[in-house]
Amino acid sequence: MFLKKSLISGLLLLLTLSLGSAVSADDLFTSRVVLEGLNSPWAMIWGPDGQLWITEREGSRVWSVNPTNGKKSALVEIPNVVTGPQHEGLLGLTLAPDFAQSRLVYLNYTYSDGQLERHKIVRYTYDPSSKTLISPQDILTGLPAGKDHQGGRLIFGPDGMLYFSKGELGHNQGANRCKPNEAQRLPTAAEVKAKDYSAYVGKILRLTPEGDIPNDNPVLKGVRSHVFTLGHRNPQGLLFIGERLYGVEQGPSTDDELNLLEAGGNYGWPYIAGYPDDQAYAYINWSAVRGCESVPASAYLPAGQASVKETKWNRQDFKEPLRTFFTMPSFYNFQDAKFGALAYLGWATIAPSSLDYYPPNGPIKAWRNSIIISSLKNGALYRVPLSEDRKQAQGDIIKYFHTRNRYRQVLISPDGLTIYILTDKAGNVLDENGLPSQKMANPGALLAFKYKGK
Ligand SMILES: [Ca+2]
Ligand SMILES: [Ca+2]
Known about the structure:
This protein has 3 helices and 30 strands.
């Protein structure tokens, strides 16, 4: 079953690639640049003032932006945010469900505890007279942080609880290859009591609006903690559709994922990428390699170290993805010379950064009941149609709006006619000819694609 799904995914990939510029659906939209020059915009929500509220990862500010003319005003500039070139800084943002009464706004960012880089969730109060965010209050502090795979999405569920996606900090790869990957490690009772959150990496967390552990969180290995699901790599997108929670996460050289996230579910990383099909991925525990630091990161299989086949890792709690982007066969050439040192840009992964939902009654008929995913690597959106009960992905994945940009977040307007996209200010991306580029067409921008059909 898994292998079959992989092959289908591979065929869909070939279909998607071959369609490329031939996709004419884009002709039904007009595009414009609402504004440019934001300092690494990261999250975007509809604010209570009818404007778009946008965080800047490196700028440490939250802006209120007029989606029509691009005029912006700062809601807050947060002091002492630790920023870096890729993953650190001010990330997610969300309004309290009772915002009309409480005026509470939640966000998360990287900071220093004096010794170590950490991450925290903080809430502010919106002051309508000054149109600023005031009175910060820590909700959950001391979360692990690092220079890679921070996750960072923050949303409320219909249950009134706060959900936060935490990456595994890129351990077991690149510069962090000798640090153990802890996406499977669960917190002990002693750790929870001591507020030691080091095992929260590679997890989706669920917390009360005050930051406490909800008394109906899953009990995992005998311990109830903030952990809601485990086994994630770099989950940057979370979205509720009705009662169900969906997420996207970035895979390794194959198998970015769209998941349906269920309490206590184990999403497999680092033992499984995508489906347990032994296609183009096997876990190698670098931290167990003798003299790891002296072994170059480029060594595919370090001497004396075995890889673990996906099919050998057998866990009852494993949840397979709804869809992968995309599952590559083992014979795929991951070192295509055409892409030079940026070979990863040639891989069929898309680096999903966010997702939104196009509702069943929206005016764009072809998009109804679909999940829309933004891609960092390809500067495109991917539309995934859902089954009627929304428990499965079904049908062809369609690619839209390719530009020479890294798409950081997608947000659909309430009337379903305009698709807003935030772009990174820098990075690596595929250009119009499908070749690596570091020159963004619209750095730090808010783009708008408006539907002109009927
Ligand atoms: Ca997975
Ligand atoms: Ca796999």
